[in-house]
Write a structure and sequence with these properties.
By secondary structure, the chain is mainly β. It has a single domain (2-176), classed as Jelly Rolls (Sandwich). It is 6% helix and 40% strand. It contains 2 helices and 13 strands; from the N terminus they run ββββαβββββββββα. The protein has helices at 32-37, 166-169, and strands at 2-5, 12-15, 19-21, 24-26, 46-53, 57-63, 70-76, 78-85, 96-102, 108-111, 115-121, 125-132, 141-143. It has a 6-stranded antiparallel β-sheet with strand order 1-2-10-7-12-5, with no helix packed on it. It has a 5-stranded antiparallel β-sheet with strand order 9-8-11-6-13, with no helix packed on it. Strand 1 (2-5) and strand 2 form a beta hairpin. The chain is globular and about 50 Å long. 29% of the residues are buried. The mean pLDDT is 96.
């Protein structure tokens, strides 16, 4: 597995070695020794899975109570995955990284505590599997508006094409959001 620092410090891209032949492909989706060598958390307490249609936008989500680090990967299809630094004391506060993840590459994105996470489905259906380091806490969940102009996220579709939940459509602007110190 190749582990690469992205343009946003703390956000890592984990790219597996894929063995392909005439039958298909094989790769490891989890190998704790690689995670330990990279200095990432090893105590993942919950696995989650979502399926989204093309142009579904989820996020930008985070928890201020029971904050979670995430390790995300696409099981089918592709998406644009986004992480935003929500640590007010960080020199990168408000900056984001946006990377395409796909089932074809098997790449995973590590998002530490203190970052918001969101994505948009780029294919007809997308499966997203992700591990988290703490349990879901509904009272601690917060949502930044996905298309907050202050974030400048390069979403690959027009706002009127986005398919949103009520929660995501009513997200808070970064300047008004409860965030990390």
């Amino acid at each position: 597995m190749i582990i690469t620092q992205t343009s946003l410090p703390g956000i890592l891209l984990l790219t597996p070695t894929i063995y392909r032949d005439n039958r298909g492909a094989f790769w490891e989706t989890w190998n704790q020794s690689h995670i330990v060598r990279a200095g990432l958390p090893t105590n993942w307490v919950q696995d989650n899975f979502s399926v989204s249609r093309k142009n579904v936008v989820r996020g930008i989500h985070y928890q201020v109570i029971q904050p979670q680090a995430k390790l995300v990967r696409v099981t089918h299809g592709s998406l644009l995955d986004v992480a935003v630094d929500l640590r007010r004391s960080s020199p990168n506060f408000g900056r984001h990284v946006a990377l395409e993840l796909s089932a074809e590459t098997g790449a995973m994105l590590y998002i530490p505590v203190g970052f918001g996470h969101g994505f948009v489905a780029l294919t007809d259906t997308v499966g997203l599997a992700y591990k988290v380091t703490d349990y879901y806490c509904p009272s601690g969940e917060r949502t930044i508006l996905w298309n907050d102009p202050d974030l400048g996220i390069p979403w690959p579709m027009a706002a009127q094409q986005a398919i949103l939940s009520d929660k995501d459509a009513k997200g808070t602007l970064l300047r008004d959001a409860e965030i990390f110190a």
